[in-house]
TrEMBL record:
Gene3D superfamilies: 3.10.450.50. This is SnoaL-like domain-containing protein. InterPro entries: NTF2-like_dom_sf, SnoaL-like. Residues 9-166 form the SnoaL-like domain.
Length: 187
């Protein structure tokens, strides 16, 4: 079993935060290869039902990125923001002091997690192609995501965390609205 200490806990938190932050940035920069290679797992449960209707769908990474690329092509520009990322990871066991040295008690050590979940605030500002820049679609809400550690990526020395579930729960909207967006996506 791999060790799970404070350093690994902090590295996991930073890597998970980087993965979900890259998701937003790579959408807005249209970096599809970055989404494929650095963000998504081989299979993803996507749930945008509170924005677009329909049902949650499990897709392969390739299928999802083909759909996402189609969605992104409907926008002249977009800005997706994520903040207040709260990651649910077990705390490693506290270090104990013994004669000036610090040791970790392995009998109470938390198991190194292979999966993690998180919640965050999300927001999006989008301008549809062919629309004036003052005609901005805006929405905001809560992200619920799940990520999994990929052992093969970890062996390569890269961030091993990949998104396996991505659910956006809309809390507000402004502008021409989701009906316009949904109709553009179905056209």
């Amino acid at each position: 079993m791999a060790s799970y200490d404070i350093a690994q806990y902090l590295l996991d938190r930073a890597n998970i935060q980087d993965t979900v932050t890259k998701n937003s940035l790579y959408y807005d920069t249209r970096n599809i290869s970055g989404l494929a290679n650095e963000v998504y797992a081989a299979s993803i449960l996507i749930d945008y039902t509170s924005i677009l209707g329909g049902e949650p769908t499990t897709l392969s990474r390739t299928e999802w990125l083909e759909q996402a690329q189609g969605i992104l092509q409907t926008f002249e520009s977009s800005q997706h923001l994520i903040s207040g990322i709260i990651i649910d990871l077990p705390q490693p066991a506290p270090a104990s002091s013994s004669g000036g040295t610090t040791t970790t008690t392995t009998t109470t050590m938390a198991t190194r997690p292979e999966k993690a979940s998180l919640m965050a605030h999300v927001g999006g500002n989008m301008i549809l192609k062919g629309q004036p820049s003052s005609n901005v679609i805006q929405n905001g809400g809560i992200l619920e995501a799940e990520l999994q550690r990929d052992p093969e990526l970890e062996k390569q020395g890269v961030n091993p965390w990949r998104i396996t579930k991505y659910k956006v729960i809309k809390k507000w909207g402004n502008g021409p609205g989701d009906k316009v967006l949904a109709s553009e996506l179905q056209a």
